Amino acid sequence: MSSLTAAGPAKAKGQGVKRSDLLPYLGSKLAAALVSFMVTLVIGFVIFSLMPADPVRTLTRGRPTSEAQLVQVRLQLGLDDPIWQRFLTFVGNTLKGELGYSWQFQQSVSSLVLDRLGPTLLLMGTAAAVSIALGLWLGIRSGWRHGSLFDRIASSSSLMLWSVPTFWLGMILLIAFSVGLGPIPSLLPAGGMSDPSLPQEGWAHIVDVAKHLVLPCLTMVLVVFAQYVTVMRSSIIDEMGSPYLLTARAKGLTDDAVRRRHAVPNALLPSVTMIFMHLGILVSGAITVESVYSWPGLGYLTYEALRIPDLPLLQGTFIVFSASVIIMNLLADVVYRFLDPRVRAQ
Amino acid sequence: MTAATDAPAGLDVPRHHAFSRFCRAFAKRPAGLAGLGLLVAFGVLALAAPLFIGDDQLNVIKVDGPQLSPPVDGYPLGTDQAGRSVLLLVIWGARESLSIGLIATALTVVLGSAVGLLAGHYQGWIGKILMHVTDWFIALPSLPLAISLSAVLGQGAASITIAIAVTSWTATARLVRAQTLSVEARPFIERAKVLGAGNTQIMIRHVLPNVMPLILVSSTLTVASAILSEATLTFLGLGDPTSVTWGSMLQAAFLGGAVTAGAWWYLMPPGIAILIVVLGFTLVGRAVEHVLNPRMVGR
Question: Quick one: which of A158, A186, A180, A170 has its CA closest to A219?
Fold first, then answer.
């Protein structure tokens, strides 16, 4: 969130920043992240606790219940307490890691979330690594020679891929590579994370999971990397006119060395910030991709919660997703400080 | 005292001149023209759809085509599980998909511009609070928020529209605030203040007309992402189950097993339609941006 605004004052102070400023800097960032998290909780509380008309009705939908039972449930859920008290209970429970009780799984939301965290981290991590590497590389190449054939192909294909709905691309890839289309045989598994008929441990399991990972990961990479190409390309173009590049060329460095040693490190700074700021895109990608491929992660859990709709579970995934994005933004602020020599101590 | 006569030096040409100059500059951008052409084609098709598509071609009970059939005579793009023509469904779907996209954009732009204008004009505590709120919303991942909102509001086009607006107004707000700050620093605002213009008059009569072009550019790009969001939310099951949109076609295809059946003819058309419309809006938006912003030349 505040990575860009944070860079402002720090830059304004320029070379005068000292190492001893690190702690107050971290402190203020941490405080801002905590405030963001509290705001997320407020929004979550408003959406899930205040907006639904009558949670008890939804809960007991389709079941014959007497008036006395309804009153009992209301009492159990604390629905008749004043709003501020309900909010404090909600915040207290969330901080303790108690995210409520899922209606459809009859299990606590936190345990469900913990179960599904691993697969999501695996998918998002792999997809992020591949798409950042690919996006930055393409962005550097096409920005450095902007207007060239390579640039035009890279830019227009990333524009095309950006315009495609993630879940649609996922289904098309499923048909092409998993179901098999015409001459293409079925190459990869269609969904899930592993084949239940195979042993769930050892080398065979790793290969099996990797096979299941290919298509979801490919789908996410194809949709996400375009963003990184655009960001990296334009920040390279921004650096192109800088005098220090002229100096580097005047020293007789090769074009390649000028690009790699001088232009890229500087152009990377804004890109790193943007990448962290756009992590929400990865989260959205995870939800749709996991839904299409039944990948047993948090995104698929959200999809399962939606179909009921299972509000406590939905609330849990909302809080976890938001918290992870806030943490990543905090991380971006810290990383930025270490990356940018203008912010770092001399 | 109209806004036009208050405009700073250099902009004192009559408005329609500026507009025709803009059109000429836009006409020199082939990508923008292509995008505009695609959009006009889709718009006309969507508006004219009721002329050649009737209830008996869309109602699952009344149709008599082959079920989930690949393209054959009379059904150039094949049929869905109920035997409806995919071609007609895609054309019909354009109506709702486009209108949700446009309405959501209008809401987004109004909300974002209002927050941006207020935050830029009242630079005291009001502006600070508004910008903090904007930052908080930017930090929230948009899809989980949109999903949560529309799940609570219930299925339907209205809740999807609201969810899209609530999750996408922040970009417009930031843009409008930055532009408002730069407009308010110009001398003609000071002149208006000296002449006794109130806060509302300055914002509406003087700042807004100058910020408007920028708002329009950003809104073309907003439509693109709103249409994508609409498709995504509908696909996840948050749309009105009875209406035909590109997102709901893909949802029906997915839940109905079109993927396992290898029914590519059912999946391709709605996705390509989304791709074309989103691409069209993006191309037009970028072309307008290039024309209005000379710094972008050569990009």
Answer: A170
User: Cβ-count burial of A246 within 10 angstroms (0-12 exposed, 13-18 middle, 19+ buried)?
Assistant: exposed
The Cα A172–Cα B144 span in angstroms is 24
The C-alpha torsion from B3 through B5 and B11 to B12, rounded to 10°, is 150
More confident residue, A123 or A19: A123
Interchain pair A180, B262: CB under 8 A? yes
Q: Does the pLDDT of residue B271 top 70, yes or no?
A: yes
* CA–CA dist B205, A200 (Å, integer): 68
pTM across the whole model = 0.85
**Which pLDDT does position A55 carry in this prediction?**
65
What are B56-66's pLDDT values in tens digits?
777 777 777 77
Segment among A178-182, B42-46, B288-292 with least mean pLDDT: A178-182
Q: Mean per-residue pLDDT for A148-165?
A: 88
CA pair distance B231, A169, nearest whole angstrom: 13
Q: In angstroms, what separates the C-alpha of B297 from chain A's closest C-alpha?
A: 12
The pLDDT, as a whole number, for residue B3 is 43
Nearest by CB to residue B140, choosing from A40, A166, A288, is A40
Indicate which of B143, B236, B286 best probes the interface with A, i.e. most A CBs within 10 Å of its own CB: B143
A167 vs B139, B232, B262: nearest CB: B232
Q: Is residue B293 helix, strand or coil?
A: coil
* Mean pLDDT, rounded, for B12-34: 79
Residue A221 gets the label, from left (phi > 0), alpha (psi -120 to 50) or beta, of alpha
Contacts with B171 from chain A: Cβ below 8 Å: none
Rounded to whole angstroms, the Cα distance separating B37 from A299 reads: 37
Q: Which two structure tokens, joined as six digits, stand for A333? A: 């602020």
Q: pLDDT confidence of A224, banded at 50, 70, 90?
A: confident
In Å, how far is A217's CA from the nearest CA of chain B? 18
Q: Establish if B10 touches chain A: CB-CB under 8 angstroms.
A: no
Helix count and strand count (H, E) for chain B: 13, 0
Determine contact: B49 vs chain A, CB below 8 A: no
- CB nearest A171 (choices: B224, B254, B275): B254
Cα A66 to chain center, whole Å?
A: 44
Residues of B in contact with A146 (CB under 8 A): 298-299
Residues of B with CB below 8 A from A165's CB? Answer: 228, 231-232, 235, 247, 250, 271, 274
Contact A175 B264 (CB under 8 A): yes
| 3-class DSSP state of B111 | helix
